[in-house]
Amino acid sequence: MVNTLLLLSTILALILALIIVLSIILLKFRRLVKICTALLRTREERSGVVKKLRRRYVVFTAICEERIKFSELQEAVSNRFCELFSESTYYKASPQLVLFDENTQRGVYRVTHLYLDYLIATLGLVKSVKGKKCILVPLRTTGTLKKARELTRKLKF
Amino acid sequence: MRRVFADIHATLCSDEILSMYYKLGYILIACEKFIGRLSDVSERGVSVVSKVVIGASDIGDLKEALGRVEYRESVVAVHPESVEVARWAAHDSRVDVILLTPSNIKVFDKKQFNTMKYYGKPLEIRIPHLLYSSSEVKSYFYRRLNMLVRFKVGFTLGTSVNSLYELLHPLVAIKALKTLYDVPEKVTLLALTDIPRQIIFRKIK
What's the predicted TM-score (pTM) here? Predict the structure, then answer.
């Protein structure tokens, strides 16, 4: 009887000691544990957290029956975007026509990096601007407005 | 844009349309109706082959139509209106592609996709059907497209161009299918490059 009690008490003591040692390790190497758990997390979970919204500039050209104006183009693209991807996505993407040269019919659209694909799809699916038949061809995507401005002049189509 | 793209279906091809095709990066086109001279086309860097679409509701009609078609020179697409025709078309070597439209979407089931995969027959889908149909039809297409991707059956995309302003940039097609139909970019890229390219190359002398 005494022997079994002794055995039980030693087992309990061992478990307690193990818990204490583990907690000490966890406290002391908290940073290490954090890194390990972060590594174990899936890539998707990690990519879900976006630290900063970045901007992307899409250089495009318009091929139309007649020349189109800045405001007309902006209206056509925003309408098509809302039609395809709903208004809530439009607010999140916040596409803005930064510049549009009415002589060369080239321009630059700004959008958040998460919705770049949505904007490119929309640009290509615009078929008319204020009743004029039109196609918008996305040429290049850049991260700075300066580079986008250069590309509107340099790019050949 | 690298010139690697191929279009499996254009309704009308004129000089103007072909030069725009070349600018957008297309080099191989299967055309239903062609206006102009073929020698001008090769100078432009675009290769054009003729395209035939056969609509059939029973096997007899299909056999008869296939007997009349010059299948060695033109791309043959079958528009099946019944399950039997779809199954038959899947294993007939004269048929190049099987056409999927809103009117025959219910013909395509798991068994059909299995047969098509077994005989290596790709499916043809037209981009205007994907983009300008009603919401109900779009939902049908969503399910069929994702089933196709899961079954790993090849498919090709046709623009069905009638005029210059109906043309679509290949990048736009890839992004549109990704955002609207959840089709992976690599799969769509294959549908615009390798699969139609193999079919059209077989027909060029």
Answer: 0.83
